[in-house]
Amino acid sequence: MLYHSQKNTMHTSVGFTLIEMLVYMSLLIIISGVGVLMLISLSDSFQHQKLDQLLLRNGSVVLERMLSDIRNAQDVDAFYSTFVSTPGVLTLLSGTSTTAYTVSGGTLFLSVDGVQTQVTDNTISVEELRFYSYDNLETEMVRVQLQLSATRGSSTRTRIFNAGAVLRGSYE
């Protein structure tokens, strides 16, 4: 008689069950989604920072030039200047020289004795430019309000600049 014995073998399964795979896949998808959202947020923050730097640089250059020209002027030509409304025009007189600031198509231009040059960068738009003139018979002052905006991709930033200067030629 042949005796045949069966071995009791325990089968250990190696691998993952379907439920475990679904749990791992959903966790991977959630973590990947959060990572992508963080990268998009970081990219948007970087774009906003670059636009803020561009606006600050252009606004500072424009205002420094305007304030320098206002300080060095002897008088404001009220006939050729437009105050309070936007876009304003400022025409300064200094001896025989005439300096004018105007906006055309969202770009700020400087005209010195009829020669016109662009002051703002091509990526910047002048949304508002207002000039205010104050004259107390002894001194004359001009205040400038400038609103610039810049767009890159889907990001748009706007910044308002305010400054004022006394015409040195008005009290000498």
Report a brief summary of the structure.
The protein is α+β, with helices and mostly antiparallel strands and 172 residues long. The protein is built from one helix and eight strands, in the order H-E-E-E-E-E-E-E-E.
Looking at this protein, list some descriptive labels.
alpha+beta; 172 residues; 5-stranded antiparallel β-sheet; 3-stranded antiparallel β-sheet; 8 strands
How many domains comprise the coordinates?
Answer: 1
Q: How would you write the strand order of the largest sheet?
A: 1-2-3-4-5
Instruction: Estimate the strand proportion.
Output: 35-45%
What is the approximate shape? Answer: rod-shaped
Helix content: 25-40%
Category by helix and strand content: alpha+beta
The count of β-strands is 8
Task: Please give the count of helices.
Answer: 1
Mean pLDDT: 87
User: What is the string of helix and strand elements?
Assistant: HEEEEEEEE
Q: What is the makeup of the main sheet?
A: 5 strands, antiparallel
Low-pLDDT segments, ≥5 res:
none
Give the end-to-end Cα distance, rounded to a whole number of Å: 133 Å
Radius of gyration (CA) equals: 33 Å
